[in-house]
Amino acid sequence: MRIGELSARTGVPVPTIKFYLREGLVPSGERTSATQARYDDRHVDRLALVRVLVESAGLTIAQVKRVVDLLDDPPADTLDLLVGVQTATAEPAPPVDETLARALLGRWGWVVDDSCSGHVAALAAALDAVRTAGFDMPEGMIDEYARAMRSVAQAEIAALPTGSPEAAVRYTILGVVLFEPVLLALRRLAEADAVGARFGGPTASDVG
Amino acid sequence: MRIGELSARTGVPVPTIKFYLREGLVPSGERTSATQARYDDRHVDRLALVRVLVESAGLTIAQVKRVVDLLDDPPADTLDLLVGVQTATAEPAPPVDETLARALLGRWGWVVDDSCSGHVAALAAALDAVRTAGFDMPEGMIDEYARAMRSVAQAEIAALPTGSPEAAVRYTILGVVLFEPVLLALRRLAEADAVGARFGGPTASDVG
Fold first, then answer.
1. B11: left (phi > 0), else alpha (psi -120 to 50), else beta?
2. Coil, strand, or helix at residue A51?
3. Rounded-to-10 torsion of CA A112, B137, B182, B147
4. Rama region for A127: left / alpha / beta (φ>0; ψ in -120 to 50; rest)
5. Contact (CB, 8 A) for B150 and A147
6. What is the Cα Rg of chain A in Å?
């Protein structure tokens, strides 16, 4: 199909498609003349993905580029794939002392591969921001967080499909990127529900 | 103290302090002449908070302004305070169909006050993005997310101090804003640990 039909099928305007082509987020079409190229269903799928990553997930163009590079040349190892996607979509953390973060991970027995050093830095920076604000996390809260995130992660990874590399890559990209806002929205709603339960107002009941 | 000493005590450069004053993030000092003003410890505390919100939490100036407005005139009701802080620091969600989000909240028995409509919209938008990407959340995953966020929220709200309004406001602001990056960093680390446990590599052990 021509670029006009690609635009019609995906709902992405032609100038936007041209921008994505220039940035390397969508592979070039098959050139049919000096000024025209032909596109196929792979371009439709890729455009749909790029659109979600840019518009819904709010990733920067540079982050989307790193994600599609992983899609085009996925690591064979599942941990490399996961950490690659996580790292591609993370903001780099400022360097701070990691002693507390590493002590916590050790206490929980979480295995931290060298490839996850960026995540350790992110945890250390997040804890440092709390401390810099002159604020102490209440006793036991960080352990509760760890328990909750461990349940979440185990459910997520248990559902990671293994039938095809494509499915694994797709699940990892969309799971890492698109589930995060779901989790954050749920936290806010759960906090409001818990405030109601503690401080009066409407009553709350338990999760099924 | 003069603005120079305020800068020295907080580590915030004078031009940045002047910018915060102009934007209303920090209250004016007591004017002592046409060109000078006097500042006190309340300015030191406020600058420390603004700095954390801007630099560590990455809030926009407009978001910080909404947060400090709540600090200067906090609602008496805890739910209003919590939802006010949550809303002040959230991105507005695009309007989408909320049927699924409301059905889930009903199934879990979560009480959703009218003031939380922005959070419901955020959940609906997050679920819509997953669907738009042509992706289904695995069966039961959303319930697992809800259970985990409920544990997190109950621990958070149980620790909300009630001794003074100032302490409650401070806990709410810092808890809502600064704990989120902690949670997200933990999710990524827990995912990596869970991948290692499922797909080989180093073994993982349980949370204490």
1. left
2. helix
3. -110
4. alpha
5. no
6. 21
Residue A207: predicted pLDDT: 45
Please indicate whether, in this complex, the C-beta atoms of B183 and A144 are within 8 angstroms of each other.
no
Contacts of B188 in chain A (CB under 8 A): 86, 90, 116, 119, 122, 176
How are beta strands A30-31 and B37-38 bridged, if at all?
Answer: unpaired
pLDDT lower than 70: segments of chain B: 201-208
Residues 6+ apart with CB under 8 A from A139: none
Strand partners, A48: none
The answer to whether B71 contacts chain A (CB < 8 Å) is no
Contact status, residue A72 vs residue A165, Cβ threshold 8 Å: no
Task: Answer whether residue A11 shows pLDDT above 60.
Answer: yes
Single pTM value for the model: 0.85
d(C-alpha B195, C-alpha B205), whole Å: 13
How far apart are the C-alpha atoms of A71 and A83, rounded to whole Å?
Answer: 13
Q: How far apart are CA B162 and CA B172, in angstroms?
A: 11
